[in-house]
Amino acid sequence: MANRISVTFRTSTSFTALITYNCSLTYIYGLSVFFNETQGIYCSVSEYNSNNGIVSVTCNNIQNNAGRAWTFSLIQEFVYSQVILNETFTVTLEPLSLNIFTSIAITINEDQRAATVFINNCLNISHRKYLVFRCNEFDLLNNTLSNNCTYICYNLEPGSIYFASLVRLPIRIVDKTEDEYDNTFPEEILNRTYKTSLDKVTNSIFDEDSINKNKMNIYFNRPRGYYQQIQITCNGLDQCCLYNNTDWAITIGNCSYCNTISIFSIVRGITYKCQAKTMKENFDDRISDEYNFTSGLEPILYNGLNYFNTSAINLNVISQSDFNSIELICNVDNDQTYPCSNSTAVTDYCSTFLYFVGIRGCNYRCYFVTKKYNYDDKRSNESRLIFFPPKPNLFEYGKGSRWIFLHWAVNELAYIQSFDLFINQTQISNINKSIFSYNCTDLLPNRK
Q1: 2-92: which CATH number, 2.60.40, 1.20.1740, 1.10.3470, 4.10.320?
Q2: Nearest to 167 by CA among 209, 208, 128, 194
Q3: Do domains 202-294 and 307-387 have the same CATH topology?
């Protein structure tokens, strides 16, 4: 019988051990090493000290047993009258180094809330029960790996940095006694830093302010996890005539209640493409999906004259939104008849100047229509345009000491209800619009 085994050299695939028997050995050449009832072809037995019953056993090329207890039998089939059968010994092989023979691959799930960990070559390091993975520096649990060398970390937060570690726990060396100080392979740690991506802004809703038409309230679901800033950028897509800057960006800091941004510089009549950017130092920015919103057209402002002494007029209007053209629509006021008629005028492309020809003597109720392709027209408040009738040209056709015969003519198309005749600033008659002459009598002589 053997008293003890003393390993003098060991690796993850080989060892040399001295085995002491309680009797002297006269013949060792029949000794063989068996493992799983098969003779070890990479093992050899040599004499170390036959007088003291000590033999040396060396085994090489031991596969898939790093960090594990490897049990073998030393058998001597027959030597003269001495028979040694099935003497069993156990040696713990050295585990493979984590820092040399393996690596940690971490794949973050798309939602950034879980990570799948794969440990390369883990089953060759040591027995799986000694390999644990800790997802972060606060994880003190011994989470063993699965059979396929994976582990899943849950409850991650987007925008975070984690300090994970693969730990090979201490392994008891079974061929050493409890009293020996070096009876354990010490713990080894392989560290790995990984980080989750930033989350993105979702479900953006654009709401026009009910009071200020140039103010837009943007509501959104703020990103999960950790971030420092959110920047919302909008770009005008279909600007035509209004040459304002339609691109803008606004940034807010991280806060637990920030789920809305108000923009005060909206240009009306523009379709905007907006995206939100989640930002944090040392992290890649996370861009949200695109969101489009359209601000409707606004009516123009007209602050010009309302009374005119000419038929052809130029009107200058003030646009309050983008546009393609502006149309003036004028309807005859009251019960005025021919030659008064409804009339319209349209600006040139992108112009705010209108050329309009009215009929003298006509009163118009007018409004302006802001137009742009693919947008609903916007009508302004009503304005009154009043065209004064023209002054008639007055002629003298004859006169006496107490009378004068007058004739007059109107040289342009005009709407006339009647003529008032004044002599020395005194109205002497109201004359039908169809009459263009009048004989003034009973005048004082020698007067102008």
Answers
A1: 2.60.40
A2: 128
A3: yes
Positive or negative: CA dihedral 372, 374, 380, 385: positive
- CA-nearest of 152, 151, 140 to 114 is 152
Residue 340: CB atoms within 10 Å: 22
Hey, what CATH class is 202-294 in?
mainly beta
pLDDT in tens, the chain (448 residues): 556 789 999 999 999 999 887 665 555 666 788 888 788 889 998 876 766 778 899 999 999 999 999 999 888 766 554 555 568 899 999 999 999 999 999 999 999 999 999 999 999 999 999 999 999 999 988 889 999 999 999 999 999 999 999 999 999 999 998 888 889 999 999 999 999 999 999 999 988 888 888 888 889 999 999 998 888 888 888 888 877 666 666 666 656 567 888 887 788 998 988 889 999 999 999 999 999 989 999 999 999 999 999 999 999 999 999 999 999 999 998 888 999 999 999 999 999 999 999 999 999 999 999 999 999 999 999 999 999 999 999 888 888 778 888 899 999 999 998 988 888 888 888 888 888 888 888 777 766 6
Structure tokens at 10: 């060991």
424 — alpha (psi -120 to 50), left (phi > 0) or beta? left
* CATH of the domain spanning 307-387: 2.60.40.10
Task: Give the number of other CB atoms < 10 A from CB of residue 17.
Answer: 21
Q: Which two tokens stand for residue 209?
A: 């302010």
**Domain regions of the chain by residue span:** 2-92, 98-195, 202-294, 307-387, 393-440
- Write down the CATH number for the domain with range 98-195: 2.60.40
